[in-house]
Amino acid sequence: MHFPQAETVASRFEVLDESASTNAALRVLSSDSLAWPHLSVLLTDNQTAGRGRLDRSWVAPAGSALAISVLLRELPTSPELTGWIPLIAGVAMSHAVAAQLPEHEVGVKWPNDVLVEGRKICGILAESTGTAVIVGAGVNTAMTQQQLPVATATSFAVLGEEADADLLVAAYVRRLDDLVSSLATWGDAVRSGVHAAVSAQCASLGREVDVSLPDGEVLHGTALRLEPDGRLCVVSEGAEHLIAAGDVVHARLT
After folding, report:
1. Which of 49 and 56 is assigned the larger pLDDT?
2. SS3 sequence of 3-17
3. Could you tell me whether strands 12-16 and 40-44 are parallel, antiparallel, or unpaired per DSSP bridges?
4. Which domain holds residue 227?
5. Comparing 88 with 254, which gets the higher pLDDT?
6. Collapsing DSSP states into helix, strand and coil, what is residue 93?
7. Are residues 168 and 64 both part of a single domain?
8. Lowest mean pLDDT among 27-31, 230-234, 242-246
9. What is the pLDDT of residue 55?
């Protein structure tokens, strides 16, 4: 695999023939801050033991998906603002995907699953490591219909398109860096424009949703807005609930 455009965006760019988890591998490498600076990228199309949100496993046949991990060191000084990074990553990837699928509806299911026509094409997992954050993304590129892990997933191939992996990664990393830099510079999600950017891409807003909460409760209601801290406001039975963590399912539109 060749990534000339992505290499110009990343401060360091490495492609692995195979990796159990690019996030785990980058975590180990990141201990050397000089060799692995801000915006270092580790990538493979053969990840054998990836993880998603809520400790779900993420495994794809070799060559069918890209696993991309980005190291972020230049972060907002306020620790609570780092909660925006997973949402920012979803927006960045949705823009990169949409640029190659102009005839399809692309959006983000809160907090950061990238959807095409309501089906998941990319999942994201952000993890803190000391003073840095590693953002991992798994994009279904050449996955066939038979290889899709669930019926609610999709891929570039299933949509009849061939992904330009180099362009995809370059666009994603560039947008990710721009939004994180804006958040760090302004120190505020609203003034930086991050809140507006995430809200604009959030396909959950205005939808009926079921939210599986960490305590096992399922909340049914309408996703109303994003709070200034990134929490999802869901209205249920006339009351507003602010969701910091949960698994969101969109109700089917008729």
Report:
1. 49
2. CHHHHHHCCEEEEEC
3. parallel
4. 205-250
5. 88
6. helix
7. yes
8. 242-246
9. 56
Phi-psi region of 199 (alpha: psi -120 to 50; beta: other; left: phi over 0): alpha
Q: What is the CATH number of the domain that holds 196?
A: 3.30.930.10
What average pLDDT does the chain have? Answer: 93
126 and 227 in a common domain: no
Q: Rounded to whole angstroms, what are the CA distances from 39 to 142, 172, 229?
A: 26, 12, 24
- Hunting for tokens 């309501």 — which residue is that? 118
CA distance 167 to 144: 21
CATH of the domain at 242: 2.30.30.100
Q: For residues 22 and 43, is the Cβ–Cβ distance under 8 A?
A: yes
Please give the pLDDT value at position 23.
96
Output the pTM of the full model.
0.93
Tokens found for residue 95: 């823009």
Q: What residue type is assigned to position 18 of the chain?
A: E
Question: What pLDDT sits at residue 130?
Answer: 85
Taking the C-alpha atoms of residue 9 and residue 22, their distance in angstroms, rounded to an integer, is 19
**Residue 38 predicted with pLDDT over 70:** yes
- Total structural domains within the chain: 2
- What is the predicted pLDDT for the residue at 254? 39
Instruction: Indicate if 88 and 193 belong to the same structural domain.
Output: yes
Element holding 129 (H helix, E strand):
strand 119-129
From 181, 200, 219, give the residue that closes a domain. Answer: 200
